[in-house]
Amino acid sequence: MSNLERTLSIIKPDAVSRSLDNEIKEIFKSRGFLIIKEKKIQIEKPEAEKFYKVHETKPFYDDLCTYLSSGPIVVMVLEKENAVLDNRELMGATNPKDAAAGTIRKKYGISIDKNSVHGSDSIENAKIEIDFFFKD
Ligand code: UDP
Ligand code: MG
Q: To the nearest 5 percent, what fractions of the chain are helix, strand and coil?
């Protein structure tokens, strides 16, 4: 039974600014993720606000959008069996302090906001987020 999925991954400004993007990409590849599409971009704050709209009522929303638009990011479409959940597992908990050993956020995350990577949380949101960055 094949369960090939695609998910959206973002290497966030804190990681790109420390030149960790290649190292993080190698981790994805070594765990069996295929990088189908990728681009290094910097987005404007209104675009970040659109991307994180689901969080618009949260107290951290404004800072989050300022942060995501503060510097270059690497946006990728990752493909693999069970890509959505496997990526969430590889990323680790939102707060790097709570992230399990061996996860990307445990290894590279600085704080709950500067946690180095984003990953879609469901197949449905993966489709929406992939379209957001890669719709031609
Ligand atoms: N975030 C934050 N403060 C919080 C919770 C979240 O700054 O108290 C940021 C953090 O960068 C996180 C993003 O908002 O990655 C989106 O939050 P979500 O709960 O969706 O976490 P994720 O899905 O990224 O683990
Ligand atoms: Mg989320």
A: 45, 20, 35
Tens-digit pLDDT profile for residues 81-109 = 999 999 999 999 999 999 999 999 999 99
Q: Which domain holds residue 51?
A: 4-133
Catalytic residue among 16, 24, 118, 120: 118
pTM for the model stands at: 0.98
Q: Ligand 1 test: best mutation among 84, 89, 94, most atoms within 8 Å of CB?
A: 94
Please state the domain count of the chain.
Answer: 1
What's the CATH number where 97 sits? 3.30.70.141
Q: pLDDT digit string (tens) for 43-79?
A: 999 999 999 999 999 999 999 999 999 999 999 999 9
Q: Is 118 a catalytic residue?
A: yes
